[in-house]
Amino acid sequence: MFAPVFTGAFFVLSRCFSVHPTSKEIPMKYLPKPLRLPVTAALCATVLCACAKEKISTDAAQDETTSAATEVATPTSTDKIFFDDFSYRSFEEMGKNQWKARTETGHPGIPGARWSEKGIAFLADQEHPDNTLLRMTSSTDGSGENTDHTQFCHQRKYLSGTYAARVFFRDEPTSGPDGDQIIETFYTISPLNAPMDPNYSEMDFEYLANGGWDEPDNALFATSWETFKLDPFIKENEFTTRPGSFAGWHTLVLQVADDQIRYFVDGEQFAEHSEKVYPEEPMSINFNLWFTEEGLIDSSEPRTYQQDVDWVYHNAGQVLSPAEVDRAIDALRADKVAFTDTVPDWEPKLESPCGL
Ligand SMILES: [Ca+2]
Ligand SMILES: [Ca+2]
To answer: What is the pTM of this model?
Structure first.
């Protein structure tokens, strides 16, 4: 084990000066299910932890990526808009529009935590009486059995175009002591079919209200993944992070087109990532709220964190500026559209897991 790890570490170090180094530790959510249990133990080993913190470039281990290619489906129509204002009264209602809540246990986050629809609720928008907000609530007392994580996912059929969501991040718990590493997100993801599968695709907005992943305090991450494998630990991603508070409402826009990925926050470009991490496979659109295993405060007192989502939008195949997204949302609302989905399934229709 040590020889490949050493070689991998050397390789990793040799790539430290690339244009897009990465140093973010990989959350276990990115692991394929069969690997999660053995890897949970393995990742605790010093060597792997050290490797996980090394910087590597996005073209690391490029030679190893060719054998794991998987078939990519093709679209069946040109219809293109997905919009949800989350004007629901219950998750059951929301489920009729093809949303799933995660129930699968396991990583990321605190081992033994529950994932369920229990943390999804709807409430009136105090600032706009006609509007409804979705609220995610996750809680912990530090133990797995008393931890509830929250995640929900739309169908796996999204690839290029424009993604957007209006979200409310918080810096503090709604109740209980502050300080846990809490991850507040809007992201897209496909399954990892094999180690270093180059078709693996993922793009994340992740707000760490209490720091984590080498950030000492709150920070927003934008991360685009090419792929990864575990032994030796190699990851290929590009990420951008900006420290500081992002508490409050933000409109997050993600442009995915022409081998470029651009992340925008409130109309300003936050990150630009390259063709090396450009997605290949259809992804689901997800949100989640979870605690890192390594970032819990030393307390058994219950604490609860929340993240709100006003709406989510996707335009398949078209690049919209943040201002154009705003206008598209205004137009949908003017037409009293609370939900629409004309983004076609892929052929064949893909399974839509919600455990990633
Ligand atoms: Ca990829
Ligand atoms: Ca709404």
So the answer is: 0.79
